[in-house]
Structures
1.
Amino acid sequence: MPYFLPVLLTLIPLLISTSSSQPTATVFFPGFKSPNLSTNLTLTGSAEIQANGILKLTNDTGRLQGHAFCSSPFRFKNSSNGQAFSFSTTFAMAIVPEYPKLGGHGLAFTIAASKDLKALPRQYLGILNATNVGNSSDYLVAVEFDTVQDFEFQDINDNHVGIDINSLNSTASLPAGYYIDGVGLVKQNVSLQSGETILVWIEYDSVEKLVNVTISLSSKKPSLPILSLKVDLSPFLQEFMYVGFSASTGLLASSHYILGWSFKINGEAQALDLSSLPSLPRPPEKHTALTVGVSVSSVVLVITALSVAVYIFMKIKNADVIEDWELEIGPQRYDYHELKRATNGFSDKALLGHGGFGKVYKGKLKDSKTQVAVKRVSHESKQGLREFMSEIASIGRLRHRNLVQLLGWCRRRGDLLLVYDYMANGSLDKFLFDDPKIVLNWEQRLNIIKGVASGLLYLHEGYEQIVVHRDVKASNVLLDDELNGKLGDFGLAKLYEHGSNPGTTRVVGTLGYLAPELPKTGKATTSSDVYALGAFLLEVACGRRPIESNVSQEEPVLIDWVWEKFTQGRLFDVVDIRLNDKYKEDEMLLVLKLGLICSNDAPMARPNMRQAVRYLDGEAELPEVLKPSRIYEGVGEGFDTFLHSFMSSTFDNTSSYSFTDQNGNGRTSIVSL
Ligand SMILES: *[C@@H]1O[C@H](CO)[C@@H](O)[C@H](O)[C@H]1NC(C)=O
Ligand SMILES: *[C@@H]1O[C@H](CO)[C@@H](O)[C@H](O)[C@H]1NC(C)=O
Ligand SMILES: *[C@@H]1O[C@H](CO)[C@@H](O)[C@H](O)[C@H]1NC(C)=O
Ligand SMILES: *[C@@H]1O[C@H](CO)[C@@H](O)[C@H](O)[C@H]1NC(C)=O
Ligand SMILES: *[C@@H]1O[C@H](CO)[C@@H](O)[C@H](O)[C@H]1NC(C)=O
Ligand SMILES: *[C@@H]1O[C@H](CO)[C@@H](O)[C@H](O)[C@H]1NC(C)=O
Ligand SMILES: *[C@@H]1O[C@H](CO)[C@@H](O)[C@H](O)[C@H]1NC(C)=O
Ligand SMILES: *[C@@H]1O[C@H](CO)[C@@H](O)[C@H](O)[C@H]1NC(C)=O
Ligand SMILES: *[C@@H]1O[C@H](CO)[C@@H](O)[C@H](O)[C@H]1NC(C)=O
């Protein structure tokens, strides 16, 4: 005891002087509205401060990165003893995905050596790039809120919180959530990309050498952190560091927002109250029209009702029958005469081409002057029409930049007219095959491929139902005026509830793009779309149709030909000669190999659309070794065997089969039993 006392006595003033001389720095943004913001925050990339006081790091455009850092660096450690200081931060964030459940990539609270990061978007979250990831001289500490699972960085899932030190391979990570207070270790999951405001607390204790991360959907901080990592941050921080946020998007995109932020070195960050922060504008309510209607006087209502009745009666008399289910249909209903006028009375001059179900005309609507494509479908049975209409009702609500938008429809007597966005450059096959006037370069082709893949991912995962397109091929990909690829012709699409099993249907599609299991199972699945995507990738890269009957010297089945060249180590032999060898070899290799993997005979060997998109976006490496795409041996006799198995199973079954020939000329029925 007597020995210790003097020691303690000398320590006390030391402790006091240490704590009193420790620098503190504070940041407090309860919303981002103060007039001094521009001097305090440096915004780069897509980051901007909105008029409503919300810091928006990215919008939902692809491949963006946005940064917001305090303009001046803060002293993060003691230069003489090299120890990092404690710090604490709390902020409110919201991630709004482009499509429900389909967004990316994520947001990170970031402490970095520079506020001008030379980083990449996508899985790099705007904080690191491919050359400096994992380098100990990066001096980068971040807490990531990641909504995409990247295998390259060993992500645990697509909704996690992770502590990143000089790498995106998180040192520690856990599914996003919080522990409910007072009930032991009961965890409540939190969906990061729900669009809801999430409050985050991050603390570093320099004595305990502990980083805690806590999240919550309310202003009250749960007492247990979701993530607690024992780590001394001193070696990873320089004396002066910049602090702020980074977010990025890839093929999958979300808007990333920070609604308020507070930060403090050597102390507890000032608390934020969710109710006093700016809030994201809610999407407009759907029933406003109805509310307005109710407030209108009843006299007007009766008159309106009467005139509607008269109108409907006149319509019925005109044999332009409106049925209940037609009135509920989403997209706009067009007037027959308007469409007739728009297309010059469906004149041959306005004819754009023949689709699977009928003729397509170019039209110009009088009032809006917009150009449209009008498809005239002829239908036979009432049942078929009803089915078709109910599909239009759902498909009309699909919205994606890589899908041809259905604007509306019209039905009159034997005619069913569908009105679509007009695609100035027509269908892709014209640019690929035969003798195209304009040869698409590789960059344009790759852009089209990525677009179609992202449109398909939306159909499979991004909509309230699973949509299987069933007829993915170059002639169903249309190009807008900027040569962006848009998937069209939903005439064969099937919708299923998520989690349900697709039922058996007629086998339809186009020979050469039809997955071999289809005739056997009769079930169109997302995996059979992936098969068709594989054939599509190969045709775009090779400039050749999947089945070419009049190539004498070569293998007639494209997949078999590519596989053959691949096994001979001469894969680049298959590349479209019209590209004049002007392409990036790694990109070409990716597309060709992915084409082979997707069009594997065995559905289990194919990736799903999300994986395919990930490969295309460079987020995951393709497997080194490819499985043979044919189940049976013997390359070369491939097509015969395929066709035989196709034909025999066709005749074995009692349902009817039909397909379009590969030039897209009409749907030929092989057999109807
Ligand atoms: C840094 O550490 C040295 C040695 O431990 C100490 O004397 C000094 O007061 C510390 N400075 C700060 C700012 O904490
Ligand atoms: C902005 O910077 C000034 C001067 O550096 C500081 O006084 C002020 O508190 C800062 N504002 C915020 C919101 O952090
Ligand atoms: C904020 O900006 C105003 C005007 O630009 C200036 O007068 C004031 O000193 C600034 N305040 C701080 C804390 O920097
Ligand atoms: C999204 O942000 C980018 C970069 O700031 C900008 O170029 C683009 O116009 C924005 N898109 C939308 C739809 O606001
Ligand atoms: C990667 O980041 C480092 C450090 O910020 C930078 O020096 C380098 O130029 C970047 N590399 C690329 C390819 O952007
Ligand atoms: C890490 O980065 C430093 C500085 O940027 C560089 O000199 C060094 O070669 C890099 N180390 C590795 C392993 O890439
Ligand atoms: C990421 O971590 C895993 C396991 O911790 C390791 O196998 C892998 O090599 C790491 N990858 C990178 C890029 O650091
Ligand atoms: C919470 O998330 C985990 C991991 O994603 C999952 O295994 C678990 O079933 C989820 N729990 C609830 C109640 O949804
Ligand atoms: C971090 O969390 C642990 C519990 O896991 C707690 O004991 C500790 O006090 C927390 N530290 C800070 C700085 O909040």
2.
Amino acid sequence: MHIKKQRLLTPGPTPLYPPALHAMMASDIHHRTEDFRKAYRSCLADLKEVMGTSHDVLLFAASGTGAMDATISNLFSKGDKVVVCSAGKFGERWAEIAKAYGLDANVLTVPYGQVVQPGQVEEALARDPAIKGVFVQASETSTGAAHDVEAMGRAVSKTGAILVVDAITGLGTMPLDIDGWGLDVLIGGSQKAFMIPPGLTFLSISPKAWKLTETATLPHYYFNLKKEKKSGEAGESSWTPATSLILALAESLRYIKQLGMSKLVENAQLLAQATRAAALRMGLELFAPGSPAASATAVKAPAGMDSGIIVKEFKSRFGAVIANGQGSMKGQIFRIAHLGYFDFADLFAVIAGLEIILNANGFPVKYGTGVAAVEEIYERAAVKPQPVHA
Ligand SMILES: *Cc1c(COP(=O)(O)O)cnc(C)c1O
């Protein structure tokens, strides 16, 4: 038995930024104090800055689904007509929440691995001018595919509907011009590119989306956008905040600001590009080759091999947790994450480990084949040495 370091390499939760983890230990603090308000205010201001928006940003103690739920319960009424783009498990979640609240949802479904085209959204909107909202994932984490939310934003902003973007793994992995593209509500989560544990979610909300709160009649209590905006302006949250996570977020946002949001995006995109190159070079197939996301790369297991074997052996051989497919994709694909606190050293290890596991399970790969592809992209990108921490 040799040393095996625990490595969390999934597309949420993601590896933690150590100074953020250390900041959590200062959570013996009361939330209705000026010291805490300072941290809370800096989180809201820094989120707004890294998201690059002039819209209001609200923060909630919940996993990402909480903000998805809050958006529907605060902005819509029973029977409202909406369009849901469904390209995977998270698109299905939008459809389920819409159904739970009694919305009349036209679900545009595409097979896993593909994406809903902006033209499909445009058509659906043209057919029914009563549509009040369009829901989509910027990055569909379950399949590793990315939607063209820029084109969708342009199409939706010409209508009376709002565009609600689950960017929980889109933020920090792809450019998202919230104000410029007409992304009315954009949702993020702490355990993805923000490098801290699960438990916080946040959203930006446009003036057009705020208007809907005037007529929306669905019941809600804990998630109250208007109340949360008022609380936030006073440097507080409506209810007891997740104090330790707020302290962690303040620290990780400091790091992201110093790095630059565009560099965080570029980092994920480079790692994703290198992963795709490595997979193809090893003779593997990508699951979403047409519109690959930079949050995570979904790779098909070789014919006759259950992807669960690969996931299991990463854990047993190297102590590393990588993601299997979800739902019907389980056993078919595995996913290599790039969002947040990932670097080239992580990727060298993952691809080398993958070469070993594939060979051991009857899929021959000459050692170094995939790693060389990553090395070439590292070199081509001329990655300059950076200080390790902030
Ligand atoms: C992680 C994730 C969510 C949120 O899931 P939670 O378990 O509620 O945090 C939503 N959408 C996408 C695309 C995700 O990757």
